[in-house]
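Sequence, please.
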């Protein structure tokens, strides 16, 4: 007498399409189109709004398109999303929010121009660095304030404060002539009448006794 063969191992049932969401009161039940991959397409009508949704085999919502009176509403959900435009990609909205849980990178091959009509606030939890061939900071008509809890280092070939552009004038006559060409008429009070040392020189003359 021979032993009976072992029964075949049970097999997993084929994936079933996710059950459609219950229709809201007064809404038309969703029509489900199952796909071979296990995903499903749902089409539903809710009053003046139509919905087309694609769900994964587990029931997760992947793509949702809602057609409303204000326009279409598109929602995407996935591990990775890519948008590519050969020429121009434009975003226009009333409020734009971008949130990244980790890092973010913006790379521009040409120039970057930013225009903000309100205020700009940038906060960095650690360090901030600006690197460029030339850096200009201008405030008009307000002022510029630099505040630090530690040292402030300014390193340059020449550090000039309210000084003339190089080359520096060699005499007060040259200084006054340059100011006249620039439209300035004021001269230092100590230099009235031609008295005082020339720029770059010290006045070692002792005051005369009355």
């Amino acid at each position: 007498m021979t032993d009976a063969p072992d029964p075949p191992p049970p097999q997993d049932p084929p994936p079933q399409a996710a059950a459609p969401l219950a229709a809201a009161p007064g809404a038309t039940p969703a029509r489900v189109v199952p796909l071979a991959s296990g995903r499903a397409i749902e089409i539903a009508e809710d009053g003046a709004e139509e919905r087309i949704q694609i769900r994964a085999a587990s029931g997760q919502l992947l793509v949702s398109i809602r057609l409303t009176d204000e326009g279409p509403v598109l929602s995407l959900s996935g591990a990775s999303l890519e948008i590519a435009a050969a020429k121009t990609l434009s975003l226009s909205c009333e409020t734009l929010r971008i949130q990244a849980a980790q890092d973010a990178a913006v790379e521009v091959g040409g120039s970057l121009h930013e225009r903000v009509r309100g205020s700009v606030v940038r906060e960095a939890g650690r360090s901030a660095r600006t690197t460029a061939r030339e850096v200009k900071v201008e405030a008009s008509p307000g002022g510029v304030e630099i505040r630090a809890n530690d040292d402030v280092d300014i390193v340059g070939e020449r550090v000039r404060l309210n000084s003339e552009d190089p080359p520096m004038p060699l005499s007060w006559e040259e200084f006054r002539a340059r100011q006249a060409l620039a439209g300035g008429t004021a001269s230092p009070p100590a230099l009235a009448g031609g008295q005082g040392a020339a720029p770059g020189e010290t006045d070692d003359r002792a005051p005369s006794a009355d």
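Confidence is low (pLDDT under 50) at residues 14-21, 189-196, 202-210.
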